[in-house]
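--- STAGE predict ---
source: upstream dedup step, 1 unique chain passed
mode: sequence only
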Amino acid sequence: MKLPKFLLADNSDFPEDLFVVHTEYPRFILNVEEEEVEWLDDLEGDDEETMADEATKVVEAAFKWCDEELAKYDEEDED
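--- STAGE serialize ---
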C-alpha cells in the first residue's frame, strides 16, 4: 500500500491537540499544538549537523503541509 507522506491525526484522549504523522524516513509524529516531535526512527548518519538540518527541514515541511491542509478545510467550510 502506498501511503501519503503526511497524515493528519487526532485523538479523543487529547482533544485540544492535532498531530501530523510523517510516514517516510525519518518517521515521526508531530504534535502541532505543543510543537513537539516524537521520532519513530533513529536518525542515522555520520554528520550530526547534517542530520539535524535534515530533521529540521522535514519538521518545517510538516508544519507547512499542516497549515496548507487546514486552509483547505477552511475553504470548504466557507463554501
